[in-house]
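Intended use. Records like the one below are meant for learning the mapping from a protein sequence to its folded structure. Do not use them to infer anything beyond what is encoded.
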Amino acid sequence: MSTEETLNTLEAIEILEKEKNISRESLIEAIEDSLLAACRNHFGSSDNMSVTLNQTTGNFDVVARRTVVEEVEDKSLEISLEDAIKNNPDAKVGDEIDIRIESKTFGRIATQNAKNVILQKIREEERSVLFNEYQSKQHQVVTGVVQRYIGRNVSVNLGKLDAVLNENEMIKGEAYRPTERIKVYVLEVRNMPKGPRVYVSRTHPELVKKLFESEVTEVHDGTVEIMGIAREAGSRTKIAVYSNDENVDAVGACVGLNGSRVNAIVNELHGEKIDIINWNENPAMLIENALSPAKVIYVIADEDEKSADVVVPDYQLSLAIGKEGQNARLAARLTGYKIDIKSESQAKESGEFIGYDEEDYENYNASLEDDEYDEDDLFDDDDLFEDDAATEDDFDDENILEDVLKEATDLQESEEEA
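Structure written out for the chain above:
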């Protein structure tokens, strides 16, 4: 092989390595395999042949191991003693010697086949590199450019390949225009015969979580944790957050100054509303937070049954349930509890308010209507709904009704004795 050919080979390997991101070793292996394929086509077999590439000089050595015989019957496996002595003066019958083969002696068909082997290997390696690259992005958010509609699906270019945004992964009501840049969640990467196939989503709840991670520094570094997400894509999302630093307000960090952080995410989701609430290990408190923006009088949560009874002021009932039940539905998904919401009037009719002074409730309603109230003014220190009592570790939801009924009975007996 000439110096020029050597330089061209090494340069070609280097260029392919950079442009296609294919390893040097894989390219060398492809060339060696192609030369063996040429040997097989030219000689009928390559079992006794080997190809090596000097990675420094770029020279290829094609070597065939043949047995020295007096009379040659198979040229691909045997060599006459006379020819063997030309290569090795000490050769004798029965020896095995290595004979160097010039690749230029291969015919046109063998050369073409060798070229096809190299191209096929490069394509395989290129697909493998693409698959590994995008598989590492699985379950991450990436930015893509809308290409075109394919039936009811949308093709989104992610740089080196096009991803598929299926109809059921699109946000209802969203229209995608060619060249529009959108953020998508990578659902799955499949290795297909024609190359990797990437499937993306705009409706997955993890999309919202990843957007908060990229937008909110405290979420990215772990100071604020996202404990749960419930989403109805295109309409509303509820997200529960918890701060690992007592000096950091989890909700405030996610909202940002004048709502800058959450608004950036809302804009990316084309106006989808996002409710951010504080996570609480006490299920009753968590459910109360999850029903925001509705005001809640009290919550009785059954951890074993994963169910909860909630009482809200009469005028807050529709807000707590939400349009077509959305607020209550998202709160249930977020908390994992089946939530039964009743108005104050319904709770009174069922007897759940026995034992409380009617005047307290009138004052309570008036304070709710003014949106300014102090729960400490509603009941005495020993009453059930005191803030401190609701946050104590020994708070027992299951005994609430029992305690209420007991107080009512004691009060009734006192009145009868009097």
